[in-house]
Amino acid sequence: MTTVLLPLTATSAACCIGDTCAPLTREPITPAGARDLSTLLKALADPMRLRLVSMIAAHEGGEACVCDLTEPLGLTQPTVSHHLKVLTDAGYLTRAKRGTWAYYTLVPGALDSVAALLRTV
Amino acid sequence: MTTVLLPLTATSAACCIGDTCAPLTREPITPAGARDLSTLLKALADPMRLRLVSMIAAHEGGEACVCDLTEPLGLTQPTVSHHLKVLTDAGYLTRAKRGTWAYYTLVPGALDSVAALLRTV
DNA sequence: TCGAAGCATAGACGCTCATCGATGTTTCGT
DNA sequence: ACGAAACATCGATGAGCGTCTATGCTTCGA
Q: Residue B34 and residue A41: Cβ atoms within 8 Å?
């Protein structure tokens, strides 16, 4: 499955006026919304995938190929490719193939979208 | 295990000046930091637990007992108690027992702390 | 043209986790 | 004192996931 979930818009974020939510009794998250958000969080809820995202963002040019990421993580190449696919399918990364190399880049605003969604829960 | 992980401080958040990170080549997340953040995200990366957090926050008084949450979720009481323990151990909820009832409350700023950490990845 | 390099995919294995039924513990009425 | 109610804990089970080895596909250089 290669469905892209991001970007998502924080639709029900107009709850907090000052620094606190005045009426705490807004409506709870919908079951479908909870399922979608949990899918996004599951993709990030792994130590190696978090390090992958961070290493790609910290790499020069904001992109990195698989060969750059395998050795510092101590994982095999298929495992790294698997994690990169999970992150790409969730919408956090994009893949650009140049020659024999596959360069992965962080999607701008992807992490911020999830962070914004977290406050709407 | 009942170790409380939250609250966490976003120590390396002084990266973005305007709306974009000027040097994208900051240092990547540490392995221990990735492990801790993944633990926090794992606790939230479940549809029922997201709905629990949302339902507790939306409930009157900002608190709810187990009996309030079992029926709308369609889960058994032991399963709901299990999820509430996971969320409490992660630092998202607090437990206050009054009589035979156990009232759960959302920890203020817990979700915002994780959201802030997400942008530091 | 052919071998090598980079990467993706397939299949398998072991572990974690979500959920359940059963049971123990505590507290409140009667 | 005793039964009932609310909740936590325990043990089991089935599904999902992270990781590996093996293999296939694509691209480049000799």
A: no
